Amino acid sequence: MEYNKDLTKLTTFGIPVKAKLYAEYTDQKSLLKICRSDEYRDNMVYHIGEGSNLLFNTYFDGLVLHSAIKGITRYDKNEETAYVIAGAGEKWVDLIDFCVSEGLAGLENLAGIPGEVGASPVQNVGAYGVEAGDCIHSVECLDRTTLEVVKFTNFRKDEISKDTDSEVPVNECGFGYRTSNFKTIWKDRYFVLRVSFRLRKSQLAENYRYGGLKGLEERLGHTPSIAEVRDEVLKIRASKLPDPQIIGSAGSFFKNPVVRRKYFEWEMLNHDPNIPYYNLEGDQEHVKIPAGWLIEHAGLKGERVGGAIVYPENCLVIANTGDATYNDVRQLADLIVRKVNAAFHVTLEPEVNYIDSQIRVKVLGSGTSKGVPELQCDCAVCKSENPLDHRLRASIMVETMGVKILIDASPDFRQQALAADIRHIDGVLLTHEHYDHVGGIDDLRPYCLNNDIILYAREDVDRHIRRRLDYCFCENKYPGVPTFRMNVIEDRPFFIKGVKITPVEVLHGKLPIFGYRIGKFAYITDAKYISEEERDKLRDLDVLIVNALREREHFAHFTVEQALELINDVKPKQAYLTHLCHEVGMHHAFDAKLPPNVFPAYDGMEILV
User: Which of 28, 268, 499, 566 is least surrounded, with the fewest CB atoms within 10 Å of its CB?
Assistant: First the structure.
């Protein structure tokens, strides 16, 4: 275990970064030893490969792990097929060279992709018409929750046993375009140990008619060999992508957006009929659009922010000119997203993972169900011209590790999203079904254009949402309605794209609802009672946001005094009161009455945890 480890040379961006802790393991036994250590249990954990798809902030306040599990082994199945099993710590380029030298076809189009084997099933790396998932047979992992070794299969149709009832390929890994279950619903739950690839015994290539490989057969005068395809891919990549040893980058920064065909035809082509696109094999409902073309034709070639630049030879790349910072790259990426959206009405998503252990909380609304000012009220608070006295219905946005999580979509969400300039949402946590917390769900439709939004809710809330928004879940949806995937959660931890979420059950009057803890931050709204067992989840916090309706007693909400009693019990370093009605008085006067570490939340407030 190394302390205060410099990670700069372990990432391809070359931006200075240090980690509180760093550990490398060479086998399953040494990994298990790390997982049972105090350093592992007491810190945020992030696993890296060759650092080719990562953008770290200046300091990672946690434990960084790296696999050094080596070994590449070939097993012949029959005259046509062989399996290659590679350790997660092997370099991807070395695996490609091994396969080509052994006369095993299938992966040669993926030559030159930086990274290690363990990342290939996570990212489902792809290039020139081929994806790793096309050849992956199985993935062996360590389950972080049980510390047991598990294996996930990716059988093709011709591999399925006659004894099985399945009539379709078994894709346990959930491979899709630049994604997998390891990257989404399982993110950070599994450590990849080894990957098995199913390959053809052949010196001849099959996939050489995509992109820059078109015309290769004609130029050569014969069917290309896998070595010739590999070499051609390496030449193309060298001409388009900067060498990370000379110019820092993460390769392709953005995914090529996949959008619904109807939206593309009805909306995007009406604004620019020249937008190129690709049909997706086996998917008639979506099309893929080259992100590099969108960036270049939005006028962003050579655009700079500080030391970060849109690489002129390939607009899909953000490069470090030598002194770029994390913020330079993020601001340039955000600028690209905004300008492409304005020009072509599509939102680009980064392929690069933002690694920032800090938690940023944006208070979107801090008011009660009526908001402040209340209708027909002439009190001093409701007539106040101080914007701190104006409160929309309660909701917050949380961002950490590059993941953006909305907690509740109030009826004021559209107004809140415009004020906060919310461009992307990775998931929505719902506390309960009352209208002041879910009335803005329909306004999430702009965030559903590329992918369905995932809503996380209790089973009773799930049923309520499906009834209230039945038009979003029916078989024949009206074009343009928001599309969701409901994820029913229980009172136990779960993950959203690798971010651990711990539900905290509280009583809103007699109604059980959820608050949520994320790292050293927790958000509780509409609570009247919290059991001792659930209060324990709120200890050792840096920041707690909790409801405090007013001074007078209420049957379903904490009063200010009751909220302060909870704060005194669980002892967060700082606490903020939310879900406030006009009876608490003017913001500044109310603030002056509170203890030194307790503050009234206000709309637009930003908290760094």
Answer: 28
